[in-house]
Each structure stands twice: as C-alpha cells, then as structure tokens.
Amino acid sequence: MILTTAIIDDEPLAAQLLESYIKKTPYLQLTGVYNSAITAMRDLREQPVQLLLLDIQMPELSGIEFAKILPAETKIIFTTAFPQYAIEGFKVSAVDYLLKPIAYNDFIRATDKVLGLFANVQQQHVNKSRFMYIKSDYKLVRVDYDDILYIEGLKDYVRFYLKSGEKIISLMSMKKLEEHLPQPEFMRTHRSYIVHMTEARFVDRLRIVFGEQYIPISENFKEVVVGYLDSHTLA
User: pLDDT grade, residue 129 (50/70/90)?
Assistant: First the structure.
C-alpha cells in the first residue's frame, strides 16, 4: 500500500528534510510541498491526500485551524518546534506530533501508525477473509496471508514460501504484490524479497532468518525495516 503524502511547512529547511524522508520511505508518495496552509487549501480540499505532514505555527492560518477544515480521510502528523501545542494537536485527531528537529526513526514510527490505520481499513473492506487467489500453472490457488513466510521475486515471477514448506510460483510483479498486501505486516526488505514480519522470529546481522534461509535487508530498505524492528523492540 502506498500513501499519498503532502507537506505544509513555512521553513524551507524543515520541508526539505521531510521531503528527503518521504523519498526514501517506500510506502510514501509525495504529491506536494507547500509553504503555507493558504496555498495548499484548494489542492488538498479538492484532491485530499492520505497523509499530511503539517506545521502548526504559520502565518495567516495555523496548522491547528487548517486541520479542522480538512477532509476526514486525511490523516495528520503535526511537525513543530513548539511542544505546548501538543494537546491542541490531538484535539483535532492528529495521529502523531513530532518535535523538530525530526529524526528519521521518529518519522518512521509516526508514519507506520498512519499506514497501519489504512491497512486495517483495507483489510476490512477488501480482504476480510485474509486470503487471495493467485494464478499458478493455469489454475487459481488460494493463499492465506497467515500461511505466508516470505515471497521471493524472480524477474517476471514471484515465489511464495509457505509455513507448510510448500512453494508456489505465480506470474506477477513484486510491485503489484507489495501494493496489495497489508503493510507493515508485509514489508519489502530487499529488491527480491517481501517478508511477513509477524512471522519473523529471528534477525541476525541485518538478515531475517527462516530456518536455514537468510533473507537480506538491503541498504535501500534498511532504515524502514530497522525503524519497524526498533519500534517493536524492548531495550
């Protein structure tokens, strides 16, 4: 699942930092960067985004006031240098509240919450039974999400590795599959692998271990996967 995302921030350096974070986060798609709520108003009311990274203290119209007129489907993460606005922020149903300067691990933790909200809705409306049918050898095969350990990309094909030890090959792209599967339950760890994270029992030196199989975590996906692991780790 890919979340359409916009930024409103009147500080150019803060906006640039958030833009860089979005570009290296696979499940976020940047649709616009605005320096004020006024300039963003028409775009975001006519074509709502799923996630808005919103500064609070801005001229003409504050982030708090702008949040009150946004469509309900837009989830908000406030980004600000002022902790005193936190209570007001949560009163307008913000998903999270990030204090500047914002670290990438905090950014991932917050955006993961939003992704989880949309993934839950997606599962309720599209995948209530938590399974899908895939084409394999000229027939349709049912694959339950809970039976999947990981998925390997093989050029134009993908191979499903199931808990039973069964392997199923289907003509399909990794990108299409990634967009369909609920995230972050299923997470891309490498150009060639999607892992069912709730089934991952061991992580060894940035490799996810399934028996004798080691699934690599590549540099392109490292920060997102490590952010997910950190958010579920008791230190």
Answer: low
